[in-house]
């Protein structure tokens, strides 16, 4: 994929991501009508780099071409939402699924069913309609929703273990899993302070 092809590829994904970020800002301010609190702690977003797109296609056994990127990758645009409570994640997902102009494509609920290594997050892929001069097309945006403690664990695990080769892997993986369990217990304690457990 040439640099020009890459920039042509990502432009509509970038537009789709910006449209969704604005929608999320609005939901964040309006979701808890009866409360002064908002569900979102922080949001991050990124467009996958050219190198990352090519590496992912090669890992999937595919040619790293423009067409394959468009056909096979649904995380070219990505938003990570860090919430205070697990309940906030559920409420936000319910609201997102009710947005009639967004298409629900797929979700992976690693909070209900954590990965064997302890990874937790709720991933949802939504299609966002991007209008050009004489046409419109839906582009996928991957949203990863996590609590602060899930984000802490995932960031550390990404840094020290995810897709990495190192000695004593078994031991580190077991330690990371036990930290994940500790964080789940702590998170449950904090949940009792959640005043917006059900949507108000
Ligand atoms: P990176 O380095 O974050 O960009 P897919 O091909 O996307 O349909 P995939 O990749 O299995 O299938 O999708 P999944 O399970 O929804 O995971 C996508 C992303 O979630 C990953 O992106 C990571 O960002 C994150 N993730 C998934 N599993 C783990 C994990 O065990 N630990 C950590 N720290 N993050 C995880 P990438 O592209 O794999 O990697």
What do these coordinates show?
The chain is an alpha+beta fold and 200 residues long. Helix content is 46%, strand content 22%. It has 6 helices and 5 strands; from the N terminus they run αβααβαβββαα. The chain has helices at 3-30, 50-59, 66-72, 86-97, 148-160, 169-191; strands at 40-47, 77-83, 103-109, 122-131, 136-147. Strand 4 and strand 5 form a beta hairpin. Helix 5 packs antiparallel against helix 6. The mean pLDDT is 93. Bound molecules: ligand 0O2. The site of ligand 0O2 has 12 residues, from helix 2 and helix 5. Residues 45-168 form the RelA/SpoT domain. It holds the Pfam family RelA_SpoT. It comes from Hominisplanchenecus faecis. InterPro entries: GTP_Pyrophosphokinase (IPR052366), NT_sf (IPR043519), RelA_SpoT (IPR007685).
Q: Give a count of the beta strands, DSSP E runs of length 2 or more.
A: 5
Can you tell me the number of structural domains? 1
| Helix/strand structural class | alpha+beta
Backbone shape: flat
Mean pLDDT across all residues, rounded? 93
Please state the second-level CATH architecture: 2-Layer Sandwich
Strand content: 15-25%
Q: What is the helix tally?
A: 6
């Amino acid at each position: 994929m040439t640099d020009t092809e890459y920039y042509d590829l990502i432009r509509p994904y970038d537009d789709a991501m910006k449209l969704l970020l604005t929608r999320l800002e609005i939901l964040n301010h309006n979701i808890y009508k009866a409360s002064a609190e908002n569900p979102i702690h922080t949001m991050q977003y990124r467009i996958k780099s050219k190198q990352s797109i090519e590496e992912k296609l090669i890992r999937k056994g595919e040619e790293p071409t423009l067409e394959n990127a468009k056909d096979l990758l649904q995380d070219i645009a990505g938003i990570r939402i860090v919430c205070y409570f697990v309940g906030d994640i559920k409420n936000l997902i319910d609201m997102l699924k009710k947005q009639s102009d967004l298409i629900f494509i797929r979700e992976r609920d690693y909070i209900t069913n954590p990965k064997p290594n302890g990874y937790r997050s709720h991933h949802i892929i939504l299609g966002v309609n991007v209008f050009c001069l004489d046409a419109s097309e839906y582009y996928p945006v991957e949203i990863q929703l996590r609590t602060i403690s899930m984000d802490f664990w995932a960031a550390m695990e990404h840094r020290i273990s995810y897709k990495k080769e190192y000695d004593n892997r078994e031991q580190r993986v077991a330690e990371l899993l036990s930290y994940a369990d500790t964080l789940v217990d702590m998170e449950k304690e904090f949940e009792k302070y959640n005043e917006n457990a059900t949507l108000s």
